[in-house]
Structure formats: structure tokens, C-alpha cells
Amino acid sequence: MTPAASPDAERVETAALRETILKVDDLRVELRGERGTLRAVDGVSFALKRGETLGIVGESGCGKSLTALSVIGLLPRPVGRIASGTISLRGVGNLERLPDSQMKRVRGNQISMIFQEPMTSLNPVFTVGFQISEVLRTHKGMGNYQARLRTIEMLKLVGIPLPEMRFESYPHQLSGGMRQRIMIAMALACEPQIMLADEPTTALDVTIQAQILKLMNQLKEKTGTSIVLITHDLGVIAKMAARILVMYAGVVVEEAEVGDLFARPLHPYTEGLLKSILRLEPHRERRRQLYTIKGSVPSLYALPRGCRFSDRCPAVHDPCRVAEPPLAAPDANPDSPHKVRCWLHRKPDRP
Question: For residue range 22-68, what is the model confidence (pLDDT) as tens digits?
Fold first, then answer.
């Protein structure tokens, strides 16, 4: 019989699981375009704990992917750059200060990324087995035989049938769902601390999407890898994440635990996103028109004065057009971990 863990051991294990392994503080990312420089990510902060899934949600162009690319050091150069802020990885330090040679050792080893479309991320002229093996040879110093065995093991782990045969397959010979599984296998091959998943199921049908999400959850439980899940789909977030950041026009407008945000959204933009989810309605309501948020995300070259959502907000009032509200707990519950960037929940005269 296995002896029961001591209370001290349980406290140590619980503390390890709650340990912050990634902290992004006041991140600002600038992009240089034909019309000048714009601030695409403006003051984003969050902390990621070991074994946690953090969801980042918002419409296209709100800065979700650029936040992830900043963390992994893949901003497009010379167009994009981190203007200010810090990205701290436990055991490594500030990533934004690392030279490229050191960042290459972190990327794929301690932090990995799953991109939205695997066909643009996998090299079409190399077999998938070679591409996964290359990660292991580069970061773990494995020989060809050892890397092959580990690659086949990873293919089995992500549910690829006949892994020895698929080792020799090229990306175009696999279905979309299998290619995405290959990307997950590659991302987890070196047992990273953090996996960034940028719209990992967008190009997949709903059946394969459910399989991929289930696989990601299972692998997270097995490996303890933390996940940052980037998506525009709140249904996916509800299944996967423990906490959510809602982004709009480069800033975080709401941050909360998943259950709290779905039960009690505070920002009008979050309310609009939740109302826009397609639901199966009773027969008498089937003809109800699908809710949409009016207007579109503003150009970062021409943001409205004050709150960035003011031009689309159904609850806009005078203070909204004067100054941008801070991201803070609502006045009604100042100690709440639920934060919102909205004057409806904070008096404008407060600092």
C-alpha cells in the first residue's frame, strides 16, 4: 500500500502548483507602418501559474497574437518591437532583454507555440518525424536514434495512429486534425513549462476541434505544462481556461475567473461577446435575431478619445469620452480579483 502523503508534502505540492512561472508586466508593443508607428499592445499585464490555462479572448486585431509573439520572441522585425514592459520567466529572467542566441535556447525548450494554421508552420519538404526530431536534437542534444524513439513516443501520446509509419509522412499527406496533433507533439517534445496556443482549432471542424481540446487538457494534466490559449471563441475558453483576459484595441478591458466572467460580465464589450454566442433556443424563440456588437474595432491610428470602446458602447456616458479608465476592481467590490476597465464601475474622480 502506498503511504499517504504528509500534510507538509501536500502543502509543498500545492504551493508548487500555484507558483507563478510567467509574469508579463505593462507590456507595450509598437508596430511601424506606412502611416507611422502605432501602439498595438498597450500596457498588458498578467501572471501565469504552473499547470494553469489562461485564456486571452477578443476580436481580430486586438493584440492577442502580438502578446504571445512578444513572449516567445517572434515579433516581426524590423516592423515590431517591445517598446517597454517586462516578460519574466521563472528560472530564466527577463526575456525581453535576452540576446537572440539565448532566446533561441528558450524557444521550443521552455516555451513553445502552436500556431493557427499548421500548414504554414510545418516545412513541406521535410517529414513530420524529422521536424519533431530536430527539436529534440537541437534542445536536448539527442542523437538520431534516441530522437526518433522519443518522436514516435510523442506521436503516440497525441493519438497519431501508426506512428512509426507517420514518422515518414510529409505534412501534405496528413489531415488538418493530424497536422494540428503534429504541432502539439512538436510543442510538447521538450516538456516546456509554457505552451502558447494561438487559435489552435480555428481551421478544424467541430468534431476534430473537440478532440484537440480534450487532448490539450489531457496533456496539460500529464505534463503540468501551463497554457496560454488565444482565441476569439468564448465556447472554447469556457471548456479550457481557468482565467480570462478580454482584450480590445490593444488593452485588457476585463480580467476574471472563467465562472465569474460568464456569470457576471462587467464590461459592455464582454457582455456583447457573450450575447453574440449562438445558442440552441426553445422553439418559440428560434426567430430571434442574432445579437451583434455595432460598428467595428477602431484603427489604432485613430482611437477614440477616452475609452476605446466608447464609439460602440450602448452604455456610453460623458466620462467615457474624456479619459480612458484604468483596469481595476469595481468600486462596489475593491478587493475583488475581477478587474474591469470601465467608468460604469469606477468613479472618474478617483485616481
Answer: 999 999 999 998 888 999 999 999 999 999 999 999 988 899 999 99
> Which residue has better confidence, 1 or 31?
31
Identify which has the larger pLDDT, 347 or 258: 258
Three-state DSSP string of the chain: CCCCCCHHHHHHHHHHHCCEEEEEEEEEEEEEECCEEEEEEEEEEEEEECCCEEEEECCCCCCHHHHHHHHHCCCCCCCEEEEEEEEEECCCEEHHHCCHHHHHHHECCCEEEECCCHHHHCCCCCCHHHHHHHHHHHHHCCCHHHHHHHHHHHHHHCCCCCHHHHCCCCHHHCCHHHHHHHHHHHHHCCCCCEEEEECCCCCCCHHHHHHHHHHHHHHHHHHCCEEEEEECCHHHHHHHCCEEEEEECCEEEEEEEHHHHHHCCCCHHHHHHHHCCCCCCCHHHCCCCCCCCCCCCCCCCCCCCCCCCCCCCCCCCHHHHCCCCCCECCCCCCCCCCEECCHHHCCCCCC
Please state the rounded mean pLDDT for residues 177-186.
90
Residue 191: the pLDDT is 86
